[in-house]
From TrEMBL:
The keyword Glycosyltransferase applies. PANTHER family: COLANIC ACID BIOSYNTHESIS GLYCOSYLTRANSFERASE WCAL-RELATED (PTHR12526:SF640), GLYCOSYLTRANSFERASE (PTHR12526). Belongs to the glycosyltransferase group 1 family. Glycosyltransferase 4 subfamily. SUPFAM superfamilies: UDP-Glycosyltransferase/glycogen phosphorylase (SSF53756). Its EC number is 2.4.-.-. Coiled coil: none annotated. This is Glycosyltransferase. It comes from Thioclava litoralis. The keyword Transferase applies. Transmembrane segments: none annotated. Pfam families: Glyco_trans_4_3 (PF12000), Glycos_transf_1 (PF00534). Residues 30-195, 216-382 form the Glycosyl transferase family domain. GO terms for molecular function: glycosyltransferase activity. InterPro entries: Glyco_trans_1, Glyco_trans_4.
Length: 419
């Protein structure tokens, strides 16, 4: 068992963003504990990392008929669950630093449990339709949406009066916050493991679930769900056009046919089913597959000739950084979050994802210009090594954590929770 500093990582669904950083810290001697409300049961792994689950469903949730307060009530229940679960089962445990995924309420009780512990709020999103830079509304809104967003932001704003630091993974996401809060946020990338995610020019699709031994031109798309927020319907329209123009490529889609973000479709419907029903697609060259083990996923990225990453202005998927690090030629949407990582014709290609002609034309350009595409791939990989490699990112974060811990006042004597 490690005897180094103690860090507690709080997340609503499994370790998620904190998993790789936590494992890296554990290998460097930190005592790492994950607490979450997901499905995984309590455990301790070979690195000594403890994973604990708190049963939010067992908590008495606040009830309200006021629909705008539902998210606020859920965040309150989440924070209370963490607080009471600690007092019930883990009294006496005291971390040196806690990091919590902000917005769900999971970290709201940290100061009540450990007033002397350093606390970091990890921020992903602030719900607003206002562009704080221009002062303009991004899209038409309605009073119900505006009020719902206001209530969703209250638990997020509440983090700032208790956190010692506020971290956010991208500049685009940090800029969603109003200026007084934005000034308190440090932009620190999540990082990508560039040793694991690396190019391999010999890679090909040779799996039990799909074998393409002749190594045709390969178009790839990989994300959690097939949904409009990630541009899946638009991608399918461009693909239908491109399939009619040329026969020399295959397309592999790795995703669940479900919606992770945004409204759900009626029971029995999905965006994958809708695309197949509405578009004239050559199914012999289109391979819709579920999410695969990480080794298969990496090999697919390495074998890719052109990789699509589309998103509305929102949090970017880890898959974008992983694709760039793996040597993919990324064709991305010309939207804020993608433009932070992809410079047009330098580290990738930017397109209007709502224009199927432009999208299909640029995919075809990549297929037909392998030397130019290879130069773009190399620059993208180098950018990941220079700015986003997890080894360097994690070292910087660890240094910041140790600085925070070193400033903790002397707290000798028995620990008493403040309640």
């Amino acid at each position: 068992m490690a005897d180094g500093p103690r860090i507690l990582l709080l997340h609503r669904n499994q370790p998620a963003q904190f998993e790789f950083f936590g494992r890296w810290l554990a290998r460097r001697g930190w005592q790492v504990t994950y607490i979450h409300a997901g499905a995984a049961s309590d455990s301790t792994d070979a690195l000594g990392i403890r994973t604990l689950r708190f049963p939010v469903a067992a908590m008495e949730r606040p009830e309200t008929d006021f629909r705008y307060a539902l998210d606020y009530a859920a965040a309150t229940a989440m924070g209370a669950a963490v607080l009471f679960e600690h007092l019930r089962n883990h009294e006496g445990y005291r971390p040196d630093v806690v990091m919590a995924h902000a917005g769900w309420g999971i970290g709201l009780g940290v100061r009540q449990i450990w007033p002397q512990t350093r606390y970091i709020a990890y921020h992903e999103w602030y719900y607003t339709d206002l562009d704080w830079t221009t002062g303009r509304i991004e899209r038409p809104s309605t009073p119900p949406v505006a009020m719902t967003n206001r209530m969703r932001n209250l638990p997020i704003s509440a983090e700032f009066d208790s956190a010692d630091a506020n971290w956010c993974p991208t500049q685009f996401q940090a800029n969603r916050f109003p200026p007084p809060l934005r000034q308190q946020i440090s932009v620190l990338a999540d990082g990508v493991d560039c040793r694991f995610h690396h190019p391999d020019p010999t890679a090909k699709m040779d799996f039990d679930w799909l074998s393409l031994p002749d190594r045709p031109k390969l178009l790839t798309y990989a994300t959690r769900g097939l949904e409009p927020l990630r541009g899946f319907p638009q991608f399918m329209m461009a693909l239908a056009r491109l399939q009619k123009q040329r026969q020399d490529f295959h397309t592999v889609v790795l995703a669940q046919d479900s919606v992770s973000y945004g409204p759900r479709l009626p029971e029995g419907e999905s965006w994958g089913k809708r695309a197949l029903a509405a578009l004239d697609l050559d199914r012999s060259r289109l391979h819709l597959e579920s999410m695969k083990p990480r080794s298969d996923y990496l090999r697919t990225l390495q074998a890719s000739s052109a990789h699509i990453y589309f998103t509305e202005p929102f949090v970017t998927s880890w898959s974008l950084s992983e694709a760039l690090a793996s040597g993919c030629l990324v064709i991305g949407s010309r939207t804020g979050p993608v433009m932070e990582l992809v410079e047009d014709m330098q580290t990738g290609i930017l397109v209007d994802m709502d224009d199927p002609e432009e999208v299909s034309d640029m995919i075809g350009w990549v297929f037909d210009h392998p030397e130019e595409a290879q130069a773009i791939r190399r620059r993208a990989r180098q950018q990941m090594l220079d700015l986003y490699d997890s080894e360097a990112v994690f070292r910087r974060k660890e240094a910041l954590l140790r600085q925070m811990i070193s400033r903790v006042a002397d707290t000798t004597g028995p620990y008493q929770p403040v309640l």
